[in-house]
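Lecture 7 notes: from sequence to structure.
We start with the chain below.
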Amino acid sequence: MLRLGWFSTGRGPGSRNLLKTVMDQKEQGKLDVEIAFVFCNWDNDEEDNPKREQRQLFFDMVNGYGIPLVTASWKKFRPDLWAEDQVAWRNEYGKVLRELTSRYEFDLGILAGYMLWMDDETCRQYDMLNLHPALPDGPKGTWQEVIWQLISENADRQGIMMHICTEEWDRGAALTYCGFDIRGEEYDGLWADLDSKLANRSLDEIKAEEGQDEPLFKKIREDGARRELPLIVATIREFSEGRVKIVDKKLYAGDKALDGPYDLSKQVDGSLE
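Predicted structure tokens for the same chain:
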């Protein structure tokens, strides 16, 4: 059985849906996993807490599953150091995180909507996976930045990947991914409409005026977002069934180090049907 350490800020429905999906798969016998703990970087009794109600729903779900809930408020931890040196603050907070979670044995950490940067030492000591909304050779940055860059480059494909957390944020090796075409029947008309708008306005002007409501941008985001959860689940399944493992921060299949990430597009697309 694969033991997971679950790290989440628990700020909305996405956090709950991911946890629920993994637990549903476990209860149905489709995932041989156990969540050793859930760590949240809020206690939920902070005065300045805009997501209190959403986070309480998440906490209630965790407790309902009988999973140990571990919290350490980033808002209350060393505000003096935060104001002075955020790198030093992150290192000190990481010590607390490791002290609280090291009592639970786990094989693989999953950053499931965890909104703080992990400190370097935690990245070295723990094997943790994070989601990045792009193909392994795709753009870096937020999902918004990724999509706008794809549009500016007239790209043909987009994807989602799971990568290992390292000291270089969002730069760890890609372990698994899925991809999809952003050309073809459902997309060609949207590209043509954008080209028509570009005859009179720059892309920066379109971004400023339409933002995330721009139809091509919106379509790419929707098709990417609906693959995120299936990719995380499919990735966990690869580890839980022993097909892959991490050794020295590299992906192995059996005793062989893999040259590149696993393509799980077929499994992910199959789960969408």
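Points to note: The chain is about 45% helix and 20% strand. The longest strand covers residues 33-40.
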